[in-house]
Amino acid sequence: MKLSKILLATSAVGVATAGLAYAGGHMATGSFTLVSWGGAYQASQTNAYTNPYSANNPGVEFVWDESSAEAVAKLRAMNEAGNLTWDLVDVVASDALRLCDEGLAMEIDADEMLAPAPDGTSASDDFGDLLVGDCFIPQIVYSTTFGYRTDMVPDGVEPPNDICDVFDLETYPGMRSLESRPINNMEWALLCDGVAKADVYDVLATDEGQEQALAKLDTIRDSVIWWNAGADTPQLLADGEIFIGSTYNGRLFSAIVEQNQPIGMMWDAQVFDLDGWIVPAGLPEDRLARVMDFVNFATDTQRLADQAAYISYGPARLSSAPLVGNHAELGIEMAPHMPTDPNNAKNTFLYNYEFWADYRDDIDAKFQAWLAQ
Amino acid sequence: MFDTAKDAFVAFEHVQKSYDGETLVVKDLNLQIGQGEFLTMLGPSGSGKTTCLMMLAGFETATHGEILLQGRPINNIPPHKRGIGMVFQNYALFPHMSVAENLAFPLEVRGMGKSEREGKIKRALDMVQMGDFGGRRPAQLSGGQQQRIALARALVFEPELVLMDEPLGALDKQLREHMQFEITNLAHRLGITTVYVTHDQTEALTMSDRVAVFDDGRIQQLDPPDVLYEQPQNSFVAQFIGENNTLSGVVTKISGDRCVVKLDSGDEIDARPVNVSAVGDRTTVSIRPERVEMDKRRLSPDAHTLKGEVLEFIYMGDIFRTRLRVAGSEDFIIKTRNAPDQKRLTPGTQIEIGWLPEDCRALDA
Amino acid sequence: MARANSRLLKTNTSDGDRMSDTTNSGPMLAADGTPLKTSLARALRRQKLRALMLIAPLLAFVVLTFVVPIGSMLFRSVENQIVSGTLPETVEALDAWHGQDDTLPDETVFQALFFDLFRAAEAKEHTKLGSRLNYERTGLSSMFRTTGRGIDDIGEVFQDWLEDADPAFKDGITWYEMLSGTGGEDLIQERRALWANMVGEGFAGDIGFTLSGEIAALLPQTAAAYSDWAIYTAVADEDVVSEEDPWEAVYAALALDLARPETAFALTSYTGVGARPLANAIAALPSLPQIDFRAAFIEENDGWGNIENWQTIKIYSPDYTTGYFLNAIDMEKGLEGVNARPENQQLYIKLFVRTMIMSLIITGSCIFLGYPVAWLLANLPVRSANVLMILVLLPFWTSLLVRTSAWKVLLQQQGVINDILVWLGFVDDANRLILMNNSTGTIIAMTHILLPFMILPLYSVMKTIPPSYLRAAKSLGATNWTAFWRVYFPQSVPGIGAGSILVFILAIGYYITPEIVGGTDGVFISNRIAYHISSSLNWGLAAALGSILLALVLALYWLYDRIVGIDNVKLGG
User: What is the ipTM of this complex?
Assistant: First the structure.
């Protein structure tokens, strides 16, 4: 009884002091918390951003938190609790917009805070249209596109090369996998139901258009596995569970090039999206200064180009594109695997942030109700 | 008692039982029980008595040998078809059923109609004087009441054979004695055959027609209580039943139903030879404390006597209990009646004791 | 048995109480003369206090981790102060508008909206409100965002006009001096409260500006708008009020004040600070741009001309709303009352029903599979029982994600189970069974995951059922089945009850496993709750869904108590 009491007491003290030591250390050694997605993507950030930065700033220690998928909810919770433990958060552009709308992300003045291109072009011109919203610092362009099993293509049929092949169960029988949310799927459905690309969002803004898209999805509904995590589709393809499925192009790249799976890319109607940093609103000044110093370094032209050597996502700066080289380990040329490569980008969409910010709740409710039928 | 096993109501024939294939718990058991008899299986724990009962009930199967009920072998008859009533150690009253439901259970599974059932339940409850308790739950009853209900339940379907596995073990002394009386009474009144298992020798002696004393997987002696008490066949039975003084020595003379035993202390005593056959055999003589005589006048003149020193005198109400040092033993007990003329011995007193030769039995060593 | 004893004890003590109550006529006295009851109470109080201190840490823990979160969840599911907090004066002005006929709110509403939204845009609160209202009506998010971006433009017209009328208005100090004075403290307090309500912070502290009561009476809107600006500049921006130029809303407010004829009349007798620029402005009144905030807003975003958007704002203007709860049961609030949602948006009732049914199925299969295992555990010799127990507990020692992923490998169409079935010839290779990404997958995986929660209580109850009951039943003439069904089973029911409650309650709250193996028709309401928590950020709806789930569990618990009796639940002897 007594002994256990003592043990309890000392362990409590231990925890408390450890906590203090951590809190204290946070400031003193200059460690800061980066939030990212884990896996190959985070590894590319470590290689391209933090390792070189640490080499120049030996006092800085990076702590990674693989919470990007729940970043919006967690930041909101931190904000409500008044205890901000993150310094820099990697999110997709739509989340950055929401965080900005919620006042959870700091507003960014690109020209003032970010490095200009080597030729002197201002950061805002170098990033161009990719600076969506007021808080977003883009890093990469990725795309949501399709991969298919090359060995499951029926004999005597061309491999799929058109988005509408996904909806063509007769020519290309087999299961498909699509993300279990309306975004992208609704656009593809309308596109393959005769809506011109330019009209897609006008149509989708109407109840009839939403019905039309869902009706089109209905035609393949029984052959679809709906995924929630980006790793699902490559896994389903590798297991032979599906014939074709959508996911992020980088995931397919590693399945094809790094794991030698019999998978082919189908780039038609790929949807570009952006991933980048946001700085949480309300950082104390000393932490903010450190974060901005790092961001300035990590989003310069060379760093963004370097990242492309580790993962097949396109750098968000125009000036980085010519600097993209070969894969850091495999030595293959990366350019043809980039979603932005002219050969791949013949027919593309850019994620319509404004539209989905408005329609997401409504269409999602309809989409989920449709799924649940 | 019976000519063949077929005549007996219950018969065990060369029954053996082993649980692990290495040791026998029951070794070659032969036992015949007559119709209407109250037979008690008495023995220390681990002696095999409960196993025998369970084999009879059908919850254990005999490894070898046969058990006959009314002349029919029952080895392959499942317990529920044997029609044997049973009272368990902790009564095993079903806690989720009322008393009446407990009693109705054996009748229900026999497909008896409701009105008939109710009549029988009422009679059974009245029989154990629990007529008003039909609606109670077992947990609301005292130990003695539960005991009566268990008895009533075992009897309500009118079995011809009832087994009782230490049914009074959980009761306090007074209640136990009362229930002993009630159970025997009931058994005899209904004329049912009863096999009763206990480790309490008083219970065995007061209740039974015959007692089978078990030890080490065998019946050591099977006799009516008085025979068992007064004529134990071996030293185990003598020790187990009642209180006993034992002294060990060597037989020096045998003639008919008399023998002389020379104790290890050198003293000589008279005894009745039971388990000894020749001069020179080692033996344990056993003498009941109440048969020890302090009045020399009551013994024959040539009787051997022993010197004893009083070590302790205990007043026990109805009797006096005196502990003596006799022939090297310090546990020699004498019991005397608390009669007006009875002397109360004080420690240190030297006395001379003796006994009638027929009260002192020379048993196995 | 323990239960039975305590029941007996209870009757005993109550008998005792009754006896002591009735045995005497006056109050019983203790040895020192105090009434016995008092001294007993005193003796017991110390005991109670000690007991309370012993459980105090636990109590605090429970309150912090259980009561507070649940309370905050319940509160969040009805809380709706964001609308009136962000647009306080608009909401007030909307009182007069009923929205039944097809007319938009009048100009006063739009004027109030201008000042409210101006403040909200400065504090970046308008987008939060937009997100909130967008849950109810599509398009409001961008309506608020774009309008917030362009709201300066609406006020700039008046700024240009005033600065043309008198260049002194360009200078912040003109405004500062004109509005400074004493007597306007109440208004400042009022405006502080508005800020605090909107931003959710104190907005206390010195602002380096005191409002003149005289000018506040003359130019009420200007005084309010300037105070708003001054408070925000001093407290939020931490700037010095006298050195900064006011924002456009202040110019618009002055224009509105001046445009009222009675103001112009009253100003003729005003001789205080700033009398000259004000006189110049009145002189310039003929060139005042037309005041039409409605048109200006519709120009910024035509959503403001849509009557349904206004209806939504009006419906959701109260501080507390049933909207989230209605949404959670596929209903919605209209101006006229409550309507069912369009059929193509009805989702939650279906999910609630599915969650309940599937949880019941899972509980049922856990009973079905767990009962024999628990029976074996309780009746095997200790050594073998221990091995079996380890097998039962083994899943506990593996991460939930790993176990669920393992089921994926087993259940998928090219998975182990299908492979074996095809190999054995039970299933045609072309028609492999679909065992996952549907409700079957959820039921299989969840049954496996929750099985120990059924087995353990069952086992601990069965362990206390002496084998003599079964023997007794058999000796009384019952067949094996009857003995089991009539005697053993009823006694194991408390274990089934405890296991079922555990499994059922765990099942309805699970979302990871359904998410991974459930596909679309195997997901639960908890998956939607998780979605609204982490993806859509509609925490109010998530809280409402959670509250309903909680209420359903409590209702089922009550039902269970009514049917089976809650004392018929045992986790052990």
Answer: 0.84
Chain B / chain C CB contacts < 8 angstroms = 79
Asked if C170 and C65 sit in the same domain, the reply is: no
Longest dimension (CA), chain B: 76
Total domains in chain C come to 3
pTM equals 0.82
Q: Where are the alpha helices (DSSP H) in C135-212?
A: 140-165, 172-179, 185-199
Cα-atom radius of gyration of chain C, to the nearest Å? 36
Residues of B in contact with C564 (CB under 8 A): none
Position A286 pLDDT exceeds 70: yes
Sign of CA dihedral C147, C149, C152, C157: negative
- The DSSP secondary-structure symbol of C208 reads S
Containing structural domain, residue C288:
88-319
Window from A141-155, B269-283, C107-121 with minimum mean pLDDT: B269-283
Which residues of chain B does C477 touch, with a Cβ-Cβ cutoff of 8 Å?
A: 80-81, 83, 106, 109-110, 157
Judge if C287 and C404 occupy the same domain: no
Q: Are C127 and A70 inside 8 Å of each other by CB?
A: no
Beta bridge partners of B40: B196, B211
- Could you write out the DSSP letters of every residue in A155-215? TTSPPP-SGGGGG-TTTS-S-EEEESSSTTHHHHHHHTTT--GGGHHHHHTSHHHHHHHHH
* Residues in contact with A355: Cβ distance below 8 Å, sequence separation at least 6, in sequence order: A201, A204, A205
Q: Are residues C452 and C515 in the same domain?
A: yes
- What's the Cα-to-Cα distance from A351 to each of A354, B96, C76, C83, rounded to whole Å? 9, 67, 32, 30
- For chain A, list the domains and their CATH numbers: 30-141+275-332 (3.40.190.10), 143-274+337-372 (3.40.190.10)
Question: What confidence tens digit (pLDDT) does each residue in C198-250 have?
Answer: 887 778 888 889 999 989 999 999 999 999 999 999 988 888 988 899 999 99
Residue C69 sits in the same domain as residue C111: no
Strand partners, B333: B323
**In whole angstroms, what is the distance from residue B84 CA to residue C234 CA?**
98
CB atoms within 10 A of CB B73: 12
- pLDDT tens sequence for chain B (365 residues): 555 555 789 999 999 999 888 888 998 899 999 999 999 999 998 888 999 999 999 999 999 999 999 988 998 899 999 989 999 988 899 999 999 999 999 999 999 999 999 999 999 998 888 888 989 999 999 888 998 899 999 999 999 899 999 888 878 888 888 889 889 988 888 899 999 999 888 889 999 999 999 998 899 999 999 999 888 888 899 888 888 888 889 998 888 888 888 888 888 888 888 888 888 888 988 898 888 888 777 777 777 888 888 999 999 888 889 999 888 888 899 998 888 888 888 888 888 888 888 888 888 87
Q: Read off the pLDDT of each residue in A357-371 and give the average, rounded to a whole number.
A: 88
Cβ–Cβ pairs < 8 A, chains A and C: 88
Q: What radius of gyration, in Å, describes the C-alpha atoms of chain A?
A: 23
Q: Is C346 on the interface with A (CB under 8 A)?
A: yes
C287/C369 same-domain check: no
The verdict on domain B243-363 having CATH code 1.10.3880.10 is no
CATH number for B5-235 (one of 3.40.50.300, 3.100.10.10, 3.40.50.1260, 2.20.25.90): it is 3.40.50.300
Q: Sign of the C-alpha dihedral, residues A150, A153, A158, A163?
A: negative
**Could you please report the per-residue DSSP string of C417-437?**
HHHHHHHHTSS-GGG----SS
Cβ contact, residue pair B110, C477, below 8 Å: yes
Domains B5-235 and B243-363 share a fold: no
Tally of CA atoms within 13 A in the half-sphere of C85 that contains its CB: 19
- Name the pairing type of β-strands B64-69 and B210-215: unpaired
- The one-character DSSP state at A280 is B
Q: How far is C329 from chain A (nearest CA, A)?
A: 13
